[in-house]
Design a protein that fits this description.
Enzyme class: hydrolase
Strand content: 25-35%
Family: Belongs to the neutral ceramidase family.
Keywords: Hydrolase, Lipid metabolism, Metal-binding, Sphingolipid metabolism, Zinc
Shape: globular
Low-confidence stretches: 581-593
Largest sheet: 9 strands, mixed
Number of helices: 14
GO biological process, one term: long-chain fatty acid biosynthetic process
Protein name: Neutral ceramidase
């Protein structure tokens, strides 16, 4: 038996005017909410409670170093040495529809318009709160493991890079993506369901870069479905059962299963450069299985959920044995790699190649950059040299054949542009080893890493180990391709920031951690150089908050466009009405994560009262915020009425806040609400 605890907490943060993190598209800022973001925590302790492992999967793009260090600091002040850098794994689901603004390295700091304190605070406090909840709910229980294949939910978005891998290696695998899902089922002594923790490799990019609504994408929807099923009768985000769909080696894996097409002509652009005859690379986009991105998100999310549900119900193999954790900080810009008995190589100072700017078929870049660039471009290189300085010959040679666009490892104003110090970490729970990786491993990179770690355990008598990769953990270092994929220099390779031997370096490092665990010598591992903490100024390009004003003859919460009196549920119609509202950023921290923007309520005639049936965490409601003129703003709330909705009388309510000047020096935040007319669903 183990002691088990699970917890979930809101980590949504502001949902207006904050850049969304993932596509790095300049105009893609938040303008509302489709579903809330959550941090989901799982704590496992051995029966004597001598050692613990914490795994957190948060609905965010990735875990940043700033985020991790801040969480560890708060855990230390609460729990002393109980939760530490070696036994706490923080993983991001990699949704591309969550707020940015929580980074300390300059490249990501720039792409999310600076450090945005409300965003950072919401995520940090959400993660800590989910761990608190799990910590308070520890009880005796069991862990069961199962695995199975998820079909029709992924494609390899760089198949031409994958084909660079040796034919003999490729012939060992049935597919160019990892279709396997690993599921942990947690139950208490009485067999009561506690939680589900699963890993599956797919990019949460079913919502494309035209989206402005905050949400957890396909894996967030899978969590929602599983939790709604297990927490019967509860509103979304409520109930004790926690279901996490964590990221894995998703580097080259897209959920957009119809593949890449030229949006202007409709012809396929599945070629090594992902370009179209007219319009070039910017026209080449992959499509999901649905009629629009909302439907695609639901289809892929439902596929993932239904396989997880099947594996969860059928799980019978119990996980037993001791807990171990191993962690090191490593300077990834200068690791000496032993390639074989006679040859060594080195990793490089970080740099991004030209194809980084091309983006992918899930979200194309700008200008005329294409994937697969092994030559520089004199025009862009000239601009780079003027603005950022030319890369050194040493860095150019180290990264070859990558033509360097941003030599981030040699740029340190106002702070370093990319990390040098990176976490490597493994936690074992009995026969399960979780490899926490600081970025996006491609399919084949992940296979090589799992195999190498398994071999290392087996060589020390631990051949029974199950190996899973947890992606986007602890610090973000972009992509990790194989040496062969690196030669093709598509987007993932151009974003392999420590050069062609990055994967070999990680394999060497994780084998070292596995060896230490298997031989019980973790205490002899050198901790490595501590990561720096930069004193980031609160400089942000996000507009500052002013006071809010309603137009003449209007008050906050007035309905601007009413609902119709009646809606018939046939082909998922949608009730939608507008409110005069206010800037969502005005919420104070305490309100920001707990505050609910909307409810759908059904009239209970026997009790003569209104009962809440949906909140803003529901995937059937959409909350759109738009900035108005002269300090005002409007909100549109849509309820996409699902089939099977109970007929009756309904209304929609909106809960907002506005900022009012109380004195010259003091601005106060005032809550208000608005309510639609009642309408009938038939």
């Amino acid at each position: 038996h183990y002691l088990l605890g699970v917890g979930r907490a809101d980590c949504t943060g502001p949902v207006a005017e904050i850049p969304l993190m993932g596509y790095a598209k300049a105009g893609q800022v938040a303008g509302g909410l489709l579903s809330r973001l959550y941090s989901r925590a799982f704590i496992v302790a051995d029966a004597e409670d001598r050692s613990r492992v914490v795994f957190v999967s948060a609905d965010i793009g990735m875990v940043s170093q700033k985020l991790r260090l801040e969480v560890l600091k708060r855990l230390r002040s609460k729990y002393g040495e109980l939760y530490r850098q070696d036994n706490v794994i923080l993983s991001g689901t990699h949704t591309h529809s969550g707020p940015g603004g929580y980074f300390q390295y300059t490249l990501l700091w720039i792409s999310s318009k600076g450090l945005i304190r409300p965003s950072l605070e919401a995520i940090v406090s959400g993660i800590v709160k989910s761990i608190d909840t799990a910590h308070q709910n520890m009880r005796k229980g069991r862990i069961l493991i199962n695995r199975g294949t998820v079909e029709n939910s992924q494609i390899n978005r760089s198949p031409f890079s994958y084909l660079e891998n040796p034919a003999a290696e490729r012939s060992r695998y049935a597919s160019d993506t990892d279709k396997e899902m690993v599921v942990l089922k947690m139950v208490d002594e009485q067999g009561q369901d506690l939680g589900l923790l699963s890993w599956f490799a797919v990019h949460p990019v079913s919502m494309n870069n035209s989206n402005h609504l905050v949400n957890g994408d396909n894996v967030g929807y899978a969590s929602h479905l599983f939790e709604q099923e297990k927490n019967k009768g509860m509103l979304p985000g409520q109930g004790s059962f926690v279901a996490a769909f964590a990221s894995s080696n998703l580097g080259d894996v897209s959920p957009n299963t119809r593949g890449p097409f030229c949006v202007n002509t409709g012809e396929s652009c599945n070629n090594p450069q992902s370009t179209c005859p007219t319009g070039g690379a910017t026209m080449c986009m992959a499509m999901g299985p649905g009629g629009d991105m909302f439907e695609s998100t639901r289809i892929i999310g439902h596929n993932i959920y239904s396989k997880a549900r099947e594996l969860y119900e059928e799980a019978s193999q119990e996980v037993t044995g001791a807990l171990s954790t191993a962690h090191q900080w490593v300077n990834m810009s200068s690791v000496t790699v032993e390639l074989n008995t006679t040859h060594t190589a080195k990793t490089c100072k970080p740099a991004l190649g030209h194809s980084f700017a091309a983006g992918t078929i899930d979200g194309v870049g700008a200008f005329n950059f294409t994937q697969g660039s092994v030559e520089g471009d004199p025009f862009w290189d000239g601009i780079r040299d003027m603005l950022l300085g030319e890369p050194s010959n040493e860095t150019k040679a180290c990264h070859s054949p990558k033509p360097i666009l941003f030599n981030t490892g040699e740029m340190s104003w106002p702070h370093p542009w990319h990390p040098d110090i990176v976490d490597v970490q493994i936690a074992t729970i009995g026969s399960l080893a979780i490899i926490a990786v600081p970025g996006e491993f491609t399919t084949m990179s992940g296979r090589r890493l799992r195999e190498a770690v398994h071999r290392e355990f087996a060589s020390h008598g631990r051949a029974e180990m199950d190996i899973v990769i947890a992606g986007l953990c602890n610090v973000y270092t972009h992509y990790i391709t194989t040496y062969e994929e690196y030669q093709a220099q598509r987007y993932e390779a151009a974003s392999t920031i420590y050069g062609p031997h990055t994967l070999a370096a990680y394999i060497q490092l994780y084998r070292g951690l596995a060896r230490a665990i298997a031989t019980n010598t973790v205490q002899d591992l050198p901790p490595g150089p501590e990561p720096p903490v930069f004193n980031i100024v609160n400089l942000t390009l996000v507009p500052a908050l002013g006071v809010d004003r309603a137009p003449r003859n209007r008050t906050f919460g007035d309905v601007l466009q009413e609902v119709r009196p009646q809606y018939r549920v046939v082909h998922r119609p949608c009730s939608s009405f507008k409110y005069l509202s206010i800037h969502c950023l005005t919420l104070s921290f305490s309100l920001q994560t707990e505050h609910n923007f909307l409810t759908v309520e059904r009239h209970n005639s026997s009790a003569a009262s209104w009962q809440v049936v949906q909140n803003d965490a529901s995937w059937d409601t959409r909350f759109y915020w738009t900035k108005g003129s002269l300090g005002g703003s409007n909100v549109t709330i849509e309820w996409h009425i699902p089939g099977g909705t109970e007929p009756g009388l309904y209304r929609i309510r909106y809960f907002g806040h506005y900022r009012r000047r109380a004195s010259i020096f003091r601005v106060v935040t005032v809550p208000f609400q608005g309510t639609s007319s009642a309408f009938e669903v038939t």
